[in-house]
């Protein structure tokens, strides 16, 4: 009885110890996030103002702002999604609904896994040489978008595949039983049902795009100028379209340059903006996933 009691006591003490370790690790993650976010906001919040968001940093004019970088970030996000989303969703539909399991499909999956593991600086080097020099795009927002589309492609494909696999098989069987064509089944049933999973992949891709800097330094450049809007709607649209072929630095690139120049307050202010964007991205993902799980229940 004493040995049994002693063994039970030791087991209980061990369980308490490991529970304390596990809880401590969880709280440590929370404290790290709060500490990092608190320090960044403490250092950069005093620089934030309305003028900071619509002006451009200029030594000659004596202004500090991220207006041009915000517009460049929007350009990069939109262009990258316009390129990567159709390709990623189409690849996932092909792999999940059309292709049979063979060497070719295994090679496609292997290629996607390799793309997901390549460092971003390698993508930047490739984009600079191929898109910039060979295709003649130079330092431009289009060059950066083409490069980032290769980076986020595996993310979109994997999320779309998971979303399509989650659609009940009975939906497919019922549509086939009613005589629906394959493409009609995909277009009207599978893609709408998998919409939230695809949207989750898109939001994760947006977060990846906004946080990228190394690849964009080699491809999109670092210009921070605001686009000229012209006098009429036609001229304004023309200038906005032409900006695609111009150099433009995103928020992360500007943060790097400000740190390199020793402008730490401005860099921390940009860090505050990026942290807020990251929180919004994660909130959107939680909102979508939360609605999805609520519907399942």
Report what the structure shows.
The chain is an all-alpha fold and 297 residues long. It has helices at residues 2-44, 50-54, 67-98, 103-117, 120-134, 141-165, 169-177, 182-193, 195-210, 214-219, 233-242, 251-260, 264-296; strands at residues 56-58, 63-66. It contains 13 helices and two strands. A two-stranded antiparallel sheet has the order 1-2. The mean pLDDT is 85.
Describe the structure in brief.
This protein is 78% helix and 2% strand. It is built from 13 helices and 2 strands.
What does the main sheet amount to?
2 strands, antiparallel
Uncertain stretches of 5 or more adjacent residues: none
Order of helices and strands: HHEEHHHHHHHHHHH
Q: Radius of gyration from the CA trace?
A: 25 Å
Report the principal-axis shape. Answer: globular
Helix content: over 70%
Strand content: under 5%
How many individual β-strands? 2
Structural class: mainly alpha
CA(first)-CA(last) distance = 48 Å
In the sheet with the most strands, the strands line up as 1-2
Mean pLDDT: 85
**Count of helical segments?**
13
């Amino acid at each position: 009885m004493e040995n049994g009691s002693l063994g039970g006591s030791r087991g209980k003490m061990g369980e308490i110890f490991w529970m304390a370790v596990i809880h401590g690790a969880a709280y440590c993650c929370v404290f790290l996030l709060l500490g990092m976010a608190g320090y960044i906001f403490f250092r950069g919040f005093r620089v934030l103002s309305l003028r900071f968001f619509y002006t451009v940093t200029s030594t000659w004019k004596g202004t500090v702002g991220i207006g041009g970088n915000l517009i460049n970030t929007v350009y990069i996000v939109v262009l990258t999604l316009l390129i990567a989303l159709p390709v990623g969703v189409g690849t996932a539909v092909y792999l999940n609904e059309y292709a049979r399991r063979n060497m070719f499909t295994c090679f496609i999956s292997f290629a996607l896994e390799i793309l997901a593991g390549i460092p971003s600086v390698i993508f930047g080097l490739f984009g600079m040489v191929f898109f910039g020099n060979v295709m003649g795009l130079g330092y431009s927002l289009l060059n950066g978008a083409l490069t980032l589309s290769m980076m986020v492609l595996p993310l979109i494909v994997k999320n779309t595949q998971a979303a399509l696999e989650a659609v009940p098989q009975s939906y497919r069987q019922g549509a086939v039983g009613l005589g629906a064509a394959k493409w009609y089944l995909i277009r009207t049933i599978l893609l709408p049902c998998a919409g939230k999973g695809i949207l989750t992949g898109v939001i994760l891709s947006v977060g990846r795009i906004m946080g990228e800097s190394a690849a964009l330094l080699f491809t999109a450049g670092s210009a921070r100028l605001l686009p000229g809007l012209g006098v009429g709607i036609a001229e304004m649209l023309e200038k906005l379209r032409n900006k695609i072929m111009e150099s433009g630095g995103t928020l992360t690139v500007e943060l790097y340059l400000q740190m390199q120049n020793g402008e730490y307050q401005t860099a921390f202010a940009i860090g505050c903006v990026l942290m807020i964007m990251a929180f919004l991205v994660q909130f959107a993902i939680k909102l979508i996933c939360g609605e999805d799980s609520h519907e399942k229940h």
